[in-house]
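Closing statement on the CU-O-CU linkage sub-project.
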Amino acid sequence: GTTRHYSFDIRVANVSRLCATKSILTVNGEFPGPRIVAREGDRVVVKVTNHAQYNVTVHWHGVRQLRSGWADGPAYVTQCPIQTGRNYVYNFTVVGQRGTLFWHAHISWLRTTLYGPIIILPKLGVPYPFAKPYKEVPIIFGEWWNADTEAVISQALQTGGGPNVSDAHTINGLPGPLYNCSAKDTFKLKVKPGKTYLLRLINAAVNDELFFSIANHSVTVVDVDAVYVKPFDAETILISPGQTTNVLLHAKPTYPNATFFMMARPYATGSGTFDNSTVAAVLEYQKPHSSSAAGFDKNLPLHKPTLPAFNDTSAAANFTGKLRSMASALFPANVPQTVDRRFFFTVGLGTRPCPKNQTCQGPNGTKFAATVNNISFVSPTTALLQAHFTGKSNGVYTPDFPVVPLMPFNYTGTPPNNTMVSNGTKLVVLPFNTSVELVMQDTSVLGAESHPLHLHGYNFFVVGQGFGNYDPANDPAKFNLVDPVERNTIGVPAGGWVAIRFLADNPGVWFMHCHIEAHMSWGLRMAWLVLNGRLPNQKLPPPPSDLPKC
Ligand code: C2O
């Protein structure tokens, strides 16, 4: 492979959306940020320089980071943040992945504006397992706040309430014509009749799972989280924060006398408030010689897609149930057939006490919290991976993450009386090459809610999922160990569970968390420490010399 060099200068820029101008953090002044393009097998070297007044890190979401854990990016997990005026070079190779991923800031809520696509092309001369598309187009979903998002989250954490919801959803940074002042801020995709387009969908939204649909067009799903899937057609796509989905859009064979909206809006299961507004972009068939500017041709009839209701869990389950690994000779599904360690984690919300001299806006005057196995993860002040590598873990973390729930209860039934959570910076330690099965069970404490769980450093196979409480006596018999979907982020369904398997063959400290930023901020996060193997290529190399210090 070749080496691809990028420079990311983090700096503020003024951006106007929804009738107002705001100063946001950007990479190189661009919003959304620049694309990283690499072929499978290439090395990617990104020099990140921080010109902003905030500490920054960048995460290459979904990149496996085989033996390059120092380049993963989550603040205080694999690195200390890059301070103002400093830089850090992220250096990693893309191995065994093809499709779409994305990069985003991984500290506080800076990812609300710091994000962009990662496009992984097949090796030179290796075709796609589908007909070569005429063009490829990233479609990156985001959320826009009129307020400063650092103020939004710090106010929420102070008072313990839910953070203010966003003011708009966006496609490629643009809210589209259904919002005030935004007709000019509409993403427009011009297509030619009869051609096929590869849409690289990325959900970089902060707090919302999304339904996405294109009027009068179905699409063919071909890849999720940079892994090929068995192709299938869909009218509506469900995409959770942290997930990516490649779809083929087949433009109609003859020029239709119409313009079509592509729209996205939330799939939301909780009892909390959410941004229920709709982003629209335009699919326009290019007439020969036409050159309409921004916006869309108002003279043509306009078709809008019908999106499922915001709480349509069966539409969501129907879509995710269709995803299968390719599992072919060329693209095998290496599902672990045996298991060394089984884990059962509850994921859900809870409460924490309100400090004495404060009024709190959470349930019954408490503060909102979120947990894995009732442990709300407390961020350390130095990086976990550094602490492990230097043998100075005392006072940074403890290797005693509870691998069974602290207080078992009927997870999808009546919630327990005591909803208070415990705090800790606790890790699960895994010997190299441990074959792991993990069942994640949603809890109905403070309402059942879907949680898109993201694992760093690995893809996993989704071998089972269901509603209600996981039944260890009967559910495993139904697991799919042949062609389960392989991905890095999976929605644990509201009032249900998922089972995943992965082989712990990548030494390092690997964060796992809900990719809904509000839940992540409340503590729905934990980390795995995967130890070195015996052979040289089974060990994490020492950190690069420019690794930031805390
Ligand atoms: Cu995309 Cu730890 O995150």
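The radius of gyration is 22 Å. With this model delivered, the sub-project is considered complete and its resources will be redirected to Aim 3.
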